[in-house]
Amino acid sequence: MTDLWWKSAVVYQIYPRSFADADGDGMGDLRGVIDHLDHLAGLGVDVIWLSPVYPSPQDDNGYDISDYQNIDPLFGDLAVFDDLLKGAHARGLKVVMDLVVNHSSDEHPWFIESRSSATSAKRDWYWWRPARTGMAPGTPGAEPTNWGSAFGGSAWEFDEATGEYYLHLFSRKQPDLNWENPAVREAVYSMMRWWLDRGVDGFRMDVINMISKAVRPDGSLPDGRMPTGAAFADGSASYINGPRIHEFLHEMYDRVFAGREALLTVGEMPGVTVDEAKLFTDPARHEVDMVFQFDHVWADRGSDPWRLIPLRLSNLKAILGRWQAGLADVGWNSLYWNNHDQPRAVSRYGDDSPAHRVASAKMLGTVLHLHRGTPYVYQGEELGMTNFPFRSIADFRDIEALGQYRQAIEHEGRSPEEVLTVLRARGRDNARTPMQWDASPQAGFTTGTPWLAVNPNYTEINAAAQYDDPDSVYHYYRQLIALRHAEPAVVDGDFTMLLPDDDRLYAFTRRLGPTELLVIGNFTGSTVQAPIPDAVSWTGAELVLSNLPAPATELSLAPWQAVIYRRVIE
Ligand code: TEU
């Protein structure tokens, strides 16, 4: 029988380097996680997803792994990891690992061997290709394709020793593994089984829809389309949802997951479409339980990467509504506003000013958690943590921000100020500032010097203050999570979007048998009377939860108010 326990679960993402530092070196660690397990148990979440803690040169904060079966000394060791598993399981929390197997680190022994000579036994474990025909290897434009990497520059790195290039869709310290090679796949599957045997409960799979590349029969890869003004082309048509992706994920299921109970598998899939996601998450196909799609976090982004597009609520609703409808009968959604790659939702889609921060953080949580799917909470989201006031590029540590800044200014003629404006709003370091535990120096994150500056608003926004305040974002998230566990309509109810063209209110109903929920979120700083079609029929319905005092007149929502009503239809 297929076990769909994760439909009623809530997942909490921990970015270990920024969560809690137990040994005072300025970097979060696994002991720090153990010390704060009660924060998570108190919140009521069911699953912890740990961002990578494996040995790594930390070029991309651990998403560049040099040993898949160990723990980086920065974070602890396997014994501490086992303690964490034990502590989590004792509290009924499952632990999901980050699986980063589109690429490894260039310091992984597999790559070291692969690059050692053109005839190495592991040469074919990565994507080695000669220079473009007729061009001198290593000269500008001689790269095998015109693709850019996600972090700026070409996606190909020239290797002097063997005169060939290797592919890296991300940093040059993250060479892409060649999934065409069955030996690579076997090595990955055996590593995954090793973690499951150790007691972990599943995997979040990094850019897993990029593992199949559209390689031509002669072994070459096609050029991508060149956007105007760009230094490099977009090669994604050749690696997003590539020709063998379903075959690979199904094979992984067979080799790793089949016969094991109560796991969670979620594939991170930039650029995935609803139709593809339906295939990936159809339980009968045995691929993954759910995927992370990106459409709703790209809603404030246009074709020019260095321009901010203000959010249109009707557009956000169209996107999420499409995902709700598309996976209504087959498949399952994951639901998120935040993760370690996204700016803080309260600053992005809410209002982080003192007047509205708390209300808008709760409103965003309400709207998200009441969708059909499995919600993810990213550390600090449950406190309403905000974006960081970056002054200059010197304040950033993220390889993506630094790489894209350099490329935009040096090769694309952008001004530092226009690039900084966008990085301040969207940069990944917004999510990566240390967790704000209390009002003591460095927010109680570390007794040392934190690797990335603490947000100066920690004296006001911190966990300790919120535990004692029944009106805090933390306690509100507890209620949202408890509601999912208690009310089957939140888990299984069908979803109907209301007011699709309204740019102020996000409104929908959920219906399961006789139970119907009405959810409305006010995305503005003004009071709005909700023009719900049959508003009068909701008179007398039970107000299950609201972030502000109950509306005085029926369905008149205060600034950033959210309401959840319930009625039972006889
Ligand atoms: O991110 C995948 C990804 O597509 C990112 O490029 C993301 O969209 C972008 O950074 C948003 O600004 C995953 C990980 O979550 C990310 O942290 C890693 O850097 C990346 O893969 C490479 O492993």
Structure commentary:
This protein has 570 residues and is α/β, with parallel strands linked by helices. The protein has 16 helices and 18 strands. The protein has helices spanning 30-35, 37-43, 78-90, 109-116, 182-198, 245-257, 274-281, 313-326, 345-348, 357-369, 399-410, 416-426, 429-432, 463-467, 473-486, 488-492; strands at residues 11-14, 47-50, 94-99, 128-129, 156-159, 164-167, 202-205, 264-268, 290-292, 334-335, 374-378, 494-498, 505-512, 515-522, 528-529, 542-546, 556-557, 562-568. The strands form four sheets. An eight-stranded parallel β-sheet has the order 9-8-7-3-2-1-11-10, with helices on one face. A five-stranded antiparallel β-sheet has the order 12-13-14-18-16. It has a three-stranded antiparallel β-sheet with strand order 4-6-5, with no helix packed on it. Strand 2, helix 3 and strand 3 (94-99) form a beta-alpha-beta unit. Helix 5 packs parallel to helix 6 (245-257), helix 10 runs parallel beside helix 15 (473-486) and helix 11 (399-410) runs antiparallel to helix 12. The two termini are 33 Å apart.
